[in-house]
Specification:
Blueprint: H1 3-16, H2 24-44, H3 52-69, E1 76-80, H4 88-94, E2 99-103, H5 107-120, E3 125-127, E4 138-144, H6 149-156, E5 160-171, H7 175-182, E6 186-193, E7 200-207
Parallel strand pairs: 1-2, 1-4, 2-3, 4-5
Antiparallel strand pairs: 5-7, 6-7
Helix pairs in contact: 1-2, 1-3, 2-5, 3-4, 6-7
Amino acid sequence: MDASETKTRLQALLTAAGLTPLDDETAGRFADYLSLFVRWNERLNLSSVRDEEGIIWRHIIESIVVSNALPPRIKTLLDFGSGAGLPGIPIALCRPEIAVTLAESQGKKAAFLQEAVRVLGIGTKIHAGRAETLGTDFDCVILRAVDKMPKAVAAAVPLVAPTGWMALMTMTNELEGLERAAGTEFSWPTVKQLTSGTQRIVAFGSRGKPGPESTESESKPR
């Protein structure tokens, strides 16, 4: 698909998913990101999903769902083990008021992130190393498809601000184990299905007692 076709298809899939279409500039940036993703994916294996429509549906749409569902008043967000920039880059595109940091320890993938941020013209920071070495905390730390996910969740805990959030993009049957890995400091008020008819979810864990304005009040059976 060329850029115009990509934008049209993205907007159609957003509508099919019950989401609000993007403004034309943001949709154009997503088209640029997708084009870059597809080219680099041939060399780096950024994703096992190869076709453009599959990438839009599985990666971009789900990331936009997450960006819309983020808790209120988040100013800083860390994408822990960002890989191809998912969901951090879509969050940066959809929520420019949030300062996003992408942490990726694999050099070639970090190089892709640097190129993507340059091409898209966004102020997202890249940490080309292990997230645990950042030495700061964030209002929200999000993890998606990270290797050895329970271990990564435990390592991410110190990076969550004292009243911050952890967000986990995972499968329904894996959530309980990941909650245990996060520890007893977190409560999990919101679990949202990412794509209708699948077991893929995002769960939001609040560090400390959740306030009256947590996230969208939606819970799915586990």
